[in-house]
Amino acid sequence: MQAVMEGGDEVLQVLEVCEALEEITEVIVTTLEENPIRNSPPVDSCGTGTKPSQDDNWGETTTAVTGTSEHSLSQEDVVRITKDLEESVGLECRRYLGLTLAVVLGLLVFLTPLAFLALPHLLWPEKLQSCGTACEGLFISVAFKLLILLLAVWALFFRPPRAGLPRVFVFRALLAVLVLLFVASYWLFYGVRILDSQDENYQGIVQYAVSLVDALLFIHYLAIVLLELRQLQPCFSVFVARSTDGEARHYNLGQLSIQRAALAILERYYCDFPVHNPALLTASKSRAAKHLAGLKVYNVDGEFPEAPAEGPGNNAAAVGMVQSQSRAMIAAAARRRDTSHNELYYEEAEHERRVRKRKSRLVVAVEEAFTHIKRMQEEEQKKAPGDIMDPREAAQAIFPSMARALQKYLRTTKQQHCHSMESIQQHLAFCITNNMTPKAFLECYLTPGPTLQYSRDHWLARKWTLISEASVTSGLKDGSTFVLRCLDFGLVVTTKRIPYIQMSEEYIDPKSHKFVLRLQSETSV
Asked: Could you tell me the CA-to-CA distances from 77 to 45, 74, 81 in Å, in that order?
């Protein structure tokens, strides 16, 4: 009994500590939300930059750019930075190790035919037979074939790496092993049959080197089929959904491994998916928390109040009274919760009205700002001695007239952390340089664009984690599911095989297309 009481005391102490931490967290969040002067923009999507907070009131203070930077590191931050450095070093070492092995294998492949031709002249030149016209023609064949092989290998294998995968590429590793075994077998045969016996037929040695180069060209053709052509035909339809907001896309993929399919999905994600905006999820979370706070749950099976007198009848009455009260309270809370859809409806309607209002003001402000600048022709530039500005200066001149309306619109649509004042001025200067209209300037702010449209600090992910029950080197299958997880969200991928389509043919005689006019008594013709 004493042990149970001690355990209960420990649980109460833990609960008190958790409640104190929650109160501290609420105070910090409230302070950050209520501070109107300095607002630290959240790192969108999977951004890794830790830049100083920009002034969120640039709409009112566009005449001077000021900022305050505050840096603080906790023990958790130090541990995380150390871990990231270790992982980055490991990735760099793995990348350079693979490149080093590829370069060594490539040098071995290209120097082997030349070594086959040069070693007889170095070891037994006096025993070699003279090389005739046909033998000299083979030299030209070897030279051009090696040049073609060099260009083909450079185009296929020595491309900039797109990503670092968790496992090796199986087909590329198999091709490397095949080439290594192939060259080793040629060296073994060359050492046993030519070097040991010091073969005098030099034309046969040259033909042997030519056969090696031909075989290497065929292996390169096999590499093109396995690495490039095999995956072109679509075999699977993948459904990609973002875990936070439910944004989804469908893609068709070929015969790929899970890690290669994940890489293809990520490459398309940055071009097709709108940028991840965690600020849009705050309203729904706060609304759900408010409704949950208004709901009270009562323990129906808890302790009963003391009965006025002992007896089975009095206890039964007390039980019935407590149960009826609890059911009444739960029903009242449920009725109060059922009316929350009205609140959501009016809240969304008010938000849409505010967005339309801010948008109208922004469009008018931008159109008026663009009317103050005019592109000068070459003959006017020679005549006009007045103020002539370049696109950057013109953008800085007209930006204050539209800054306030633009900032209010971005705040209403919760995009203020995606666009800094510097990026907006750069985009404005770009539009002025290319003689673009105000509508073209506003398009990237009125319509959320793809992830790559924004700065790298808002979307660049340093690391994605591939979570899969099956091996990532195994091929895609019908029903395969895996998750690509980043810092703030995840991409859930579901695979379906494209069905086999059976088509039949039916011939229709063109002369059979004949019709008659059916007239009725009610028809007015």
From this structure: 19, 5, 6
- Class of residue 119 by CB neighbours under 10 A (exposed 0-12, middle 13-18, buried 19+): middle
Residue 240 · residue 492 · CB < 8 Å: yes
Q: Is the dihedral of CA 384, 388, 391, 394 positive or negative?
A: negative
Q: Is 75 exposed, middle or buried (0-12, 13-18, 19+ CB in 10 A)?
A: exposed
- The closest alpha carbon to 176, from 231, 116, 115, 219, belongs to 219
Neighbours of 442 (CB within 10 A): 19
- How far apart, in Å, are the Cα atoms of 174 and each of 323, 474, 497? 72, 14, 27
Cα separation of 51 and 41, whole Å?
Answer: 10
pLDDT tens sequence across 158-177: 888 778 888 888 899 999 99
What ranges make up the beta strands (E) of 118-247?
A: 236-242
Q: Distance between CA 181 and CA 174 in Å, rounded?
A: 10
Distance CA 476, CA 478 (A): 7
pLDDT digits (tens, 9 = 90+) for 298-331: 555 554 444 444 555 555 655 565 566 566 556 6
Distance CA 352, CA 344 (A): 12
Q: Looking at the DSSP assignment, which residues form a beta bridge with residue 249?
A: 240
The answer to whether 318 touches 303, Cβ cutoff 8 Å, is: no
pTM recorded for the entire structure: 0.68
DSSP H or E run through 249: strand 248-253
What the block records as the tokens of 457 is 């600090």
Angle at CA of residue 512, ends 507 and 514, nearest 5°: 145
CA 463 to chain CA centroid, Å, is 10
At 238 the pLDDT is 95
Q: Which residues pair with 497 in a beta bridge?
A: 236
Question: 524 — alpha (psi -120 to 50), left (phi > 0) or beta?
Answer: beta
Q: Taking the CA of residue 151 as centre, how many other CA atoms within 13 Å lie in the half-sphere pointing to its CB? A: 5
Which residues are paired to 490 by β-bridges? 485
**Closest to 94 (Cα-Cα) out of 140, 35, 163:** 163
